[in-house]
Amino acid sequence: MHVLIVGGGIGGLSTALTLHQLGISCAVYEAVSELKPLGVGINLQTYSVRELFNLGLEETLLDAGISAEGMAYFTRRGQHLLTDKIGSAAGFDWPQLHMHRGAFQMILAREVQRRLGPDALRLGHQCVNVEQHGGQVTAHFQDRRTGASLEPATGDILIAADGINSSVRPLFYKNEKPPHWNRTIMWRGITEGVRILDGHTMCVTGLHHHKFVCYHIKKPAEERREGESNLLLNWICELKAPDDMEFRPESWNRAGDMSEFLPAFEPWRFDWIDVPEIVTRHLGIWEFPMVDRDPLPQWTFGRVALLGDAAHPLTPVGSNGASLAVIDARILGRELAMRPDDPEAALEAYEADRRPALTRILQSNRKGGPEEFMPLVEERAPDGFDDIHDVLSEEELQTAANYRAMTGLTTDSVNAVRSLIPTELFVN
Ligand SMILES: Cc1cc2nc3c(=O)[nH]c(=O)nc-3n(C[C@H](O)[C@H](O)[C@H](O)COP(=O)(O)OP(=O)(O)OC[C@H]3O[C@@H](n4cnc5c(N)ncnc54)[C@H](O)[C@@H]3O)c2cc1C
Predict the structure, then answer these.
(1) CA 417–ligand 1 middle distance (angstroms)
(2) Is the overall model pTM greater than 0.90, yes or no?
(3) What is the pLDDT of residues 204-221, one digit of tens each?
(4) Rg for the chain (alpha carbons), in Å?
(5) Ligand 1 centre from 199 Cα, in Å?
């Protein structure tokens, strides 16, 4: 069996490594002609770290990431609401890692090239069409810079891991609207030389539409210098867009303008964090609208399946977009290895496992996901409080933990499984 993978992001590269581990031939076709470590921070949840360690990436990832141990919530006056232990600190057998997204993608890409050979990652191949014929799939490509047609590729199945603006998804959903924007803008930035709390805690401060999120990441290995801390603070300022503002389409390369959001955060100077100072000392700011897409009724179409953000781009509130793409890759690989003679049935089994769970997460994220309880505090105690238990019920205080459980993040469920793929299926 030969698998064509469209998109060399986190989902596509994880799929390639998984298929190689299972002895299934594949190649990745990526639109950009040079992979650069783009993006800022991402979270790798314990269940995805378990799978990535099973891919033999333990040492590299521990070097690249910071172990996340706490998840802390604060009001927009900087008052502490609660801190949940996460990752190893919460008893998981694997850490949760905060990491530079670009560094992670480069680790995966290097491993694909090292393990599968340089030809397994074909850069400069933008997929423009897909055809199914006689039990095979052919992908057509063009060079994004020149528009020139490139040689097509044929395989037994095709996995579309080409992100939120997938070219393959619209072949099956011809009238789908552009991504749904909740009228919030995120400005993502990085700042060097600040340490927040213990350096291992992710902090969420404020409310939907007026929020500051931060956590530490390490510099990518090639940028580190001996004798320096090499610690970066990854941060996100979120604000509701002015009513008259038009949608500025998502692009991970769009530079952000500090003057558009800094005034709203000017009073956010608390004894544990100085938001304006962090923002002002930035090393780079990128603007991104908070978008998702409606859940789909179907991800697989004969010999073609959607995966990662191409299948389920989520409102980014639960820190799980990259991790869920890794899990998609593992389940897809497992099903293909278990049904080598019936790839269409394997794709259907992959969808049956993943789509209902992702639909639930997508719907929850639209309502605030783990942060759904935060507006209640603002409503009930706008001037602050002495004891959070006077403001929120025990159940409300469990919102974030319940959300994590809904996404499969409990110590019992994660620790009970050593690998989503039975290790006897591993060939490499
Ligand atoms: C440049 C970039 C920066 C990002 N930065 C962050 C960040 O800082 N923080 C964060 O939380 N998330 C970030 N994300 C999103 C995050 O990586 C994804 O939400 C998540 O990892 C799911 O991965 P994915 O592989 O499904 O999609 P992505 O990681 O988005 O990967 C999709 C890949 O497909 C390629 N592609 C697109 N169209 C085609 C086509 N027609 N043919 C071939 N290839 C195609 C893209 O170039 C990309 O490499 C970023 C995504 C990108 C592309």
Answers:
(1) 28
(2) yes
(3) 999 888 999 999 999 888
(4) 21
(5) 27
